[in-house]
Amino acid sequence: MEGAKPEPVLIVNFTKNTVHGFGHPGWSDPPVKITVVNEVMVAFGGSESSLGSKSSISGSVDRITGDVEATYMLTTDRENKWENKVLFSMNYAPKCRPAQRMF
After folding, report:
1. pLDDT digits (tens, 9 = 90+) for 61-91
2. pTM score
3. How many structural domains comprise the chain?
4. Does a structural domain hold residue 70?
5. Are 54 and 76 within 8 A, CB to CB?
6. I need a surface site. Which of 1, 13, 52, 96 has the fewest CB within 10 A?
7. Is 30 helix (H, G, I), strand (E, B) or coil?
8. Residue 100 lies in a domain
């Protein structure tokens, strides 16, 4: 269908221990480290600093329902953490479904 927006793709890679898909594909879409895995949840988080700002993302995937909750934040990156300010914040709440393996 012409003009239709592509569905976002979230990739949970247990081999590389990463989650991918919260950035801007082709521009900035760094993988985020998985921090916890159990029977019902996959939690992830990470951050990086550049040019006086810090970007971070943290969240989880419910392995039973497919619900995802994640928060991306861009803040100033000052030595005294109490002086930092939030420049941008975005919450994600997509519903995931498992993909079929290709091979």
Report:
1. 998 888 999 998 888 988 777 888 998 888 8
2. 0.76
3. 1
4. yes
5. yes
6. 1
7. coil
8. no
